[in-house]
Input
Amino acid sequence: MAEEYELNEIDDTLHGSVGSRLSLFARELKSRRSSSWHGGTALRLPKDLYESLVIHPNGRWYRIWANMMFLWSIYSTFFTPFEFSFFRGLPDQLLDLECVQLVFLADVAVHFFLAYRDPHTYRMVHDKRRIALRYIKGSFALDVLGCFPWDAIYKVTSRVEAVRWLVWVRLYRGRKVMAFFKRVEKDIRVSYLLTRIVKLITVELYCTHTAACGFYYLATTLPPAREGGTWIGSLSLGDARYINFREVDLLTRYVTSLYLAIAMATSTR
Output
């Protein structure tokens, strides 16, 4: 009888332990379901965070926004040296391009609500005050400066050359391009080799493009009377003459500058 009572007691204890654990697991699962978003993302935010407008960096909508900003960042990093070198103030037909700065201004606002992972605890930080302080201490100033309409300011300030140089602040947006490639390199669904090749080609194209813009800008720094002695002013390609190169169409000047940049990069002497 003592042995039977002892066995029954052990059996009840086991059943009670398993039952309590299953009950605890069911309550935890129910609690998580009730407090999570109803979206289909793998990483979800609690409902109260959704209501307080905190954005998760792995959320579907933010990933779409980040990919869009990646495309606009490519445009901005390529157009900035082109604008600086080939224009002394944008012509009227290109003024609408300045509207792109509104997109980057919206991205500044988004970053005030973008949660981040603490580098020490590796936990997501959703407190909006901490998010804002972190962003203000980080890239906020450069992001805002990049959104300034420097072309309009340049024209209003009687075309002060120093103002034009501030447009180079927009190259800071190139970090979004590098962050995109870094994220894709870690994605096992995408070929790492292909990603590296595309990244290498992008960097090479950008360096060649920037060098071409730089060579053309150097030719425009001399007084008009001496521009005939510059590399492009003294250039002759077949029947084409570039003595008055400013009167040559924009595409021809850019392609000629690209030619010089490539020739200089591949020359062995």
